[in-house]
Amino acid sequence: MFCDWLNELQRFLHWGPVIVFSLMTCVTWTTVHVNAMWWPPAESFNAAINFVLIVFFNLITLYHFSMSILVGPGLLPKHWRPENPEDEQFLQFCKVCDGYKAPRAHHCRRCKRCVLRMDHHCPWINNCIGWANQANFFYFLFFFMLGSIQSALIIGFSCYEGIYRRALLKQGDTDGIRVVLTLRSAMACMYSLGIVVGVLLATLKLMQLQIKAIIWNLSEIEGWIVKKAEYRRYASSSIGIAIPTFDYPYDMGVWRNILETFTPSNDGINWPVRPGCDQYTMTREQLAQKVQKRARTRTYRCIASATGYWLPILSQGLMVTICMPCADDPRIVVHKGDLVQVTRVQEYWLYGERVLSKREQKLQKKHQLKGHIRGWFPRCCAVEQFDEDQSAGDTVDVTHNTDQKKTKTGSKIKKRKT
Ligand SMILES: [Zn+2]
Ligand SMILES: [Zn+2]
């Protein structure tokens, strides 16, 4: 128990929480400093309320920020299995946690655990957002937004008074012109105002995503699964194969969805579902999507090494660097001769999982394998390896014109055997 808390406390020692704390400290200091001149708390009852609100927003934001980290998203126990062994056929297996993934649970590669109703991994709290801490995260964003609006108004009005002080005094507007800015405090105001406006815009975007997730009871990951389910049916119907429609099982209506987030009535594993659905409606769809993904997988053999850098301008050149994938997935190191199971192809990059040697497989079992094995790497480092057994009709999931690229990457790339 003590070790768990110690691990959670270590999550604060990460660039995400450190940046959030630093920015909050900077903005709060500036706000309190200029507010003392602009509207001193001792001046009136309203001024005192304004000051109390500054303190309140800061404290409650810090509380929910800390609780988002400390409470965590809720982890699926390692080696988890459904009560009824027959239900195992409807679930995916997590090799890392050595257990089945409960409905709505996903494995987070950064937390290295399966997370209950995983929404996303947030670098700012250095933890996942999930079943247990979504309400704390929402409150954190909400009060952070209110505090930022208040700070932006106080700093903005104070800056205006401080900068145009002489002009206002010349006009005879001497009442209430009390803000005197030194060069240092003027710079601090400008800096804080820039931060607070930027942070406010980012928070509004995050709030919008969280509100959607809460009122539809649809996490960010589930949103992707639903989109893929729609595409799967569309693609199948276009070739004359009809698949039964997919009914998202967890949308119980806006009010119940909101209650489910703020006062959870379930254990994060068994969820209330819509009529006509069951606990495994979603996981069956996920399994079907996985089968399709496996069918799209192609094996590539590396013909050159890749550094695993995000901007490999020195080793791979300008175009590979400029056209890097817009995703925060890891970049993997590969060496000449390595095999990679590729599932996504872009013009200059491939996404896949490196095939491990027997020694590496042993290390992985002992959790001693370092570095990522799944991620992006430059496409010019590998060529597709064709298998006699591969069906001729299969196509690779491409986001750009693959055929053109095959010729561009040179004669080393063999034409597919048909
Ligand atoms: Zn897992
Ligand atoms: Zn995580």
TrEMBL record:
A UniProt-annotated Pfam family: DHHC
Principal localisation: membrane
InterPro entries to which the protein is assigned, alphabetical: Palmitoyltrfase_DHHC, PFA4/ZDH16/20/ERF2-like
Annotated Basic residues bias: 407-418
UniProt superkingdom: Eukaryota
GO cellular component: endoplasmic reticulum; membrane
Signal peptide: none
Catalytic activity of the protein: L-cysteinyl-[protein] + hexadecanoyl-CoA = S-hexadecanoyl-L-cysteinyl-[protein] + CoA
Compartments in which it is found: Membrane
PROSITE patterns: DHHC
UniProt keyword terms in alphabetical order: Acyltransferase, Membrane, Transferase, Transmembrane, Transmembrane helix
Transmembrane segments: 12-32, 44-65, 137-160, 181-204
A GO MF term: protein-cysteine S-palmitoyltransferase activity
Region ranges (Disordered): 389-418
Topology in the lipid bilayer: Multi-pass membrane protein
Ranges where the Palmitoyltransferase DHHC domain occurs: 90-224
UniProt xrefs under PANTHER family: PALMITOYLTRANSFERASE ZDHHC16
Name of the protein in its database record: Palmitoyltransferase
Provenance organism: Drosophila persimilis (Fruit fly)
